[in-house]
Q: What sequence folds into this?
């Protein structure tokens, strides 16, 4: 077993450094680099106990897997961890089993509903902000509801680039290039790619554009959340579903919403999407409903991933102020969102927000 103050070399950015500091508070950092060749050169002189590498880095002239294999052959006593930010944490096995390489897989979580008006964007923004807070800002939210997306409204992000601005440069873009076209949600550190400013610009965002942006975002941040339009036949929804590692189906307790949710689940099953890839969440859950949560589970034939309680006043104020409730402690909606996050990414949702975010200044429109 390694000592309490291992010598660590880091290949990554500030988020990778935070992960190392969280895992080994007493670690001796031998250096932090964005170039794997430079890290390899430094390793030859100091022989690190641990090397932590961000999977978004690309070594020159070889794949990352080939680089890791070559590095391990040269330094068999060093532990190598590949971190892509899905949890921004490093498993204990990495530090306790010499020579082991661990890859923490990325996630693309698509939030969708066949019915509009169920609070899909509300859940998307709250989940993504919670994930970003838990992962040290290593998460992104994509607004793919191209004709009527309201992510910018929910997060008070009215100025800055949108997805249409990156289209001309997309063919030659590397994953790091997305940074220029994202907006940063200050309280949570969430990266956001907003939808078009005008609905008529949505035609510019073709399925090929959606596919490319999803692939780049997944490589860049690891934790990717996608808000989608309520249109099962949409090519955009199709591309998002194809890229998803998890599909969150949002419903309410009313009969029409539940019937559409059940139909959507049947269609996904016929498309070969396993039940394990789907998670059903009830929004605006009420104890007084004629369809209690137990009956909802019986009707849908699944165990719910979570239920966000109804609190219309709190939800409306949250959107009015551009302040997601998941960033506020001691709130029933916040607790429900963090529980859903823990269901989607086990362990990630156990972090709780430490303080309230400042109220926004400005006008709601």
A:
């Amino acid at each position: 077993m390694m000592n309490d103050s291992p010598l660590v070399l880091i290949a990554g950015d500030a988020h990778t450094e935070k992960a190392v500091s969280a895992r080994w508070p007493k670690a001796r950092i031998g250096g932090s680099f964005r170039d794997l060749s430079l890290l390899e050169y430094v390793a030859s002189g100091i022989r690190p106990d641990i090397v932590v590498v961000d999977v978004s880095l690309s070594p020159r002239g070889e794949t990352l897997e080939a680089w890791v294999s070559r590095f391990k052959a040269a330094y068999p006593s060093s532990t190598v961890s590949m971190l892509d930010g899905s949890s921004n944490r490093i498993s204990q096995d990495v530090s306790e089993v010499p020579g082991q390489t661990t890859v923490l897989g990325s996630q693309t979580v698509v939030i969708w509903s066949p019915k509009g008006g169920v609070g899909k964007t509300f859940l998307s923004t709250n989940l993504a902000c919670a994930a970003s807070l838990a992962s040290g800002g290593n998460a992104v939210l994509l607004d793919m509801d191209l004709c009527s997306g309201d992510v910018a409204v929910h997060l008070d992000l009215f100025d800055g680039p949108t997805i249409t601005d990156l289209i001309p440069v997309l063919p030659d873009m590397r994953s790091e290039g997305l940074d220029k076209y994202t907006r940063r949600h200050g309280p949570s550190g969430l990266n956001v790619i907003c939808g078009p400013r005008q609905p008529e610009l949505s035609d510019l965002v073709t399925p090929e554009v959606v596919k490319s942006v999803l692939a780049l975002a997944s490589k860049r941040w690891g934790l990717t959340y996608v808000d989608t339009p309520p249109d099962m036949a949409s090519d955009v929804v199709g591309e998002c579903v194809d890229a998803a590692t998890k599909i969150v189906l949002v419903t309410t307790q009313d009969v029409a919403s539940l019937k559409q949710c059940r139909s959507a689940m049947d269609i996904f099953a016929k498309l070969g999407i396993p039940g394990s890839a789907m998670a059903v969440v009830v929004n605006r859950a009420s104890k007084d409903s004629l369809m209690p949560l137990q009956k909802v589970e019986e009707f849908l034939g699944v165990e719910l991933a979570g239920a966000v309680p109804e609190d219309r006043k709190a939800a409306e104020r949250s959107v009015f102020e551009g302040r997601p409730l998941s960033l506020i402690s001691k709130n029933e909606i916040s607790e429900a969102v963090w529980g859903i996050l823990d269901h989607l990414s086990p362990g990630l949702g156990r972090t709780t927000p430490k303080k309230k975010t400042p109220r926004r200044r400005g006008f709601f429109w």
